[in-house]
Design a protein that fits this description.
290 residues, alpha/beta, Nucleotidyltransferase, domain 5, five-stranded mixed beta sheet, binds zinc ion
């Protein structure tokens, strides 16, 4: 049996075909251009395969309510040309298979959840944060993605400002200094005039960012009590997570019992966002069963 996966990003699309054991058979990467051209390329890639189902994880925001007239649309995205784009409709018409439709970060969250449990981690729940060009998170509880009115927007929560960062206004076009506005990749240039890759880990800005990410992890811990919190995205590295764990430990102050933080606040099991592809295959299989 063959399942399709679409990871729709703002700069590139990754399409893959895999089997029920999540083994990738065929994969293609192409640039995100106009909706018409990009969706046509996506359909052309999948058309030769006899797919049983398709999982799509896309940049958003998305309409995910099945009873909405614009279900399957990308809605008010800042990406030029992509506002109010019917994504699922054209794929459904061309490929005629069950389709799951969720956010990019939910796809990754689902993949990490499935992967961890394939390696016998016995997780009931997992939260996956991406900290890159944007910030978002997805939550899986007992095999279901959290969110019914819409997908969670955990990147846009507020955090307490770091005393050494009070002059920075933040870069979120909607909220200024929400979490995304304070820790997304482009904040490095906004704060230091250098891209993050050129800012040494010893610079204070990394400690400030670690403090904010630790606050987000603390709120998620206290609100959801997940078995694990995974951090992916271009800003995240193991040395950065060492800082996050230290800040988290100070903030939590041993209030509740948790697994060792090296096992609790972790990098993805699968490199290069491979978790998104696996998650899409798993969600496609799930759609087939439902
Ligand atoms: Zn925001």
């Amino acid at each position: 049996m063959l399942i399709g996966s679409v990871e729709a990003g703002g700069t590139k699309f990754v399409c893959a075909v895999g089997d029920e054991n999540y083994r990738v058979q065929e994969r293609i990467v192409f640039a995100t251009t106009t909706p018409a051209a990009t969706l046509a390329k996506t359909i052309a890639f999948f058309k030769p395969f006899k797919l049983a189902a398709l999982g799509i994880a896309s940049f958003g925001p998305l309409e995910i309510r099945k009873n909405a007239v614009n279900y399957g649309f990308i809605t008010n995205t800042p990406k030029p040309g992509w506002q109010d784009t019917d994504f699922v409709g054209p794929l459904k018409a061309a490929l005629k298979v069950p389709i799951t439709w969720t956010t990019d970060v939910n796809g990754s969250a689902y993949g990490e959840y499935v992967m961890a449990n394939l390696s016998n981690a016995h997780l009931k729940s997992l939260v996956y944060y991406t900290i890159g060009t944007g910030v978002g998170a997805g939550t899986v509880i007992d095999g279901q993605l959290l969110g019914s009115l819409g997908h969670p927007e955990m990147g846009h929560v507020f955090v307490k400002r770091h005393p050494d960062d009070l002059k920075f206004a933040g870069i979120c076009p909607f909220h200024g200094d929400c979490l995304e506005g304070l820790v997304a990749g482009p904040t490095f240039e906004a704060r230091t005039e250098h891209p993050g890759k050129d800012v040494p880990l010893s610079a204070l800005v990394w400690d400030i960012m670690a403090d904010y990410v630790a606050q987000a992890a603390m709120q998620t811990t206290l609100t959801i009590r997940p078995d694990k919190i995974v951090f992916g995205g271009g800003v995240v590295s193991e040395p950065f997570l060492v800082k996050v764990r230290a800040a988290f430990n100070r903030l939590l102050n041993h209030y509740i019992e948790l697994p060792p933080l090296d096992d609790y606040l972790v990098m993805p099991l699968m490199a290069d966002n491979g978790s998104a592809t696996l998650g899409n295959f798993a969600l496609g299989l799930k759609a087939l069963k439902e």
